[in-house]
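User: Predict the structure for this protein chain, please.
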Amino acid sequence: MKPESRSCDTCKSEITDDLCRFFVLDDKDHNPRVVFFHWFSPCWKIEEFSQKYSNFKIIKTGCDVDEKIYKNPKFKKQLESDLTLWL
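Assistant: Here is the predicted structure, written as structure tokens:
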């Protein structure tokens, strides 16, 4: 289930790309929060994410990929095997 709107936590603009990353976080009071990011820099920087959300626990992480892109065998293999895409 996709949310009606996905705004990037860094640049605050709506994500209209076919690929984005998301995190489900839990604060100290166990209140869930979902944050989205454009997939690549300048919006996604793991160091900044780690600092900003240092008091949160990551419950889930994933990517939202358009189905037509995900069905491409080359993309799927790269997404599953290339660790640099996730960092």
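The chain has a mean pLDDT of 84.
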